[in-house]
What we know:
Elements: H1 4-9, H2 13-21, H3 27-35, H4 39-54, E1 57-61, E2 63-67, H5 96-107, E3 115-119, H6 128-141, E4 147-149, H7 152-162, H8 166-175, E5 178-181, H9 191-197, H10 204-216, E6 220-227, H11 233-250, E7 253-260, H12 279-293, E8 299-300, H13 304-307, H14 309-315, E9 322-325, H15 332-335, H16 346-355, E10 359-363, H17 376-380
Parallel strand pairs: 1-9, 1-10, 2-3, 3-4, 4-5, 5-6, 6-7, 7-8
Helix pairs in contact: 3-11, 4-12, 5-6, 7-8, 7-10, 10-11
Amino acid sequence: MLDARCYAKLGLSSIYDKVLAGRRLSYDDGLSLFACPDSTALGALAMHVRARLHKDAVFYVVNRQINYSNICVNDCVFCAFRRSGEDEPGAFVLSKEDILSRLRAVDQSPLHLDEMHFVGGCHPSLSLTWFEDVFRTVRAYNPNIPIKAFTPVEIAHLANLEGISTLETLKRLKAVGLVMMPGGGAEIFDDTLRKKICPRKADAAAWLRISAEAHSLGIKTNCTMLFGHLETFAQRVDHLCRLREQQDQSGGFTCFIPLPFLTKNSALVLPEDKAGPQRGLDQLRTVAVARMMLDNIPHIKAYWIMMGAKTAQTALWYGADDLDGTIVEERIGHMAGAESSQGLTIGELEAMIRCSGFRPVRRNAVFENLAPGLSEADHAF
């Protein structure tokens, strides 16, 4: 039972009342939440919202992430994944056969994929036509695998290469199997900060517009926020409010993913007060504030790749209800210094969820619950 006196002492009485009544929090409320020193009090409030929406369920997906290339025309200061050209050490571009071989390897295991997650850098010469051919090939190989691919930033880049609108780009990709977009590239919407950390990337207005275009076509998307770098709490709250406003208009955001900035291998050097062991508490606080602020986005993800398994488990008690999935192979976060595993089995994911006190629910790419009763082979993978 939440204690009103506790929140009164913290100066959060009005927020407490709003959360219990299911009313929308304001921008100023968001600032007050980030200023609160008691992260456990925030977690308890966020847990109230999370339980109202999802009871004891925690969702996961059986997916295979494929990062097709790290060669990118954008030169984001924070990015450890990006390479400028094929001759640079660590650069890679997957061929169509490379992509199919990764899918075949999964099929040779007991794993049955419910999502192919396809994302990478904005390659200077990989055209929309090339990706259309890849998707047709994937669907010919496995017509039942849902394709989740491309951030709004990648869509803007492909449209520019093709000389067509982003809406037409999305229509063409939908025709070859695109059903979901992962929602990366949002970083922080504040234009002044974007000029410092990602000046070549599509701006906030373009990111939101492209997301809305996808929603208009029935393509669901996720949305993200990269935090824990040079941004202020005010810029975080502004970012959350803009996502909420866009959701009011277009309604297609399925899940919000707070992405903690990973400092290793990045050219972006943090000021001393931003580094250190307090980053774990900041991650939990950010999950909690997001759950309370984003009243119209159904799911909050604790992305175990970026957070690490232990913090992701704890985040389930701070408002998160999704852990992403099996993943199998991930390069973006790991090239930035993530120390988590490359992938998890179904059994490991379900054990993480149960040991945290929740009930695992398997979903697909667009967050539809799948029928219970997995085979022993599925559980064993």
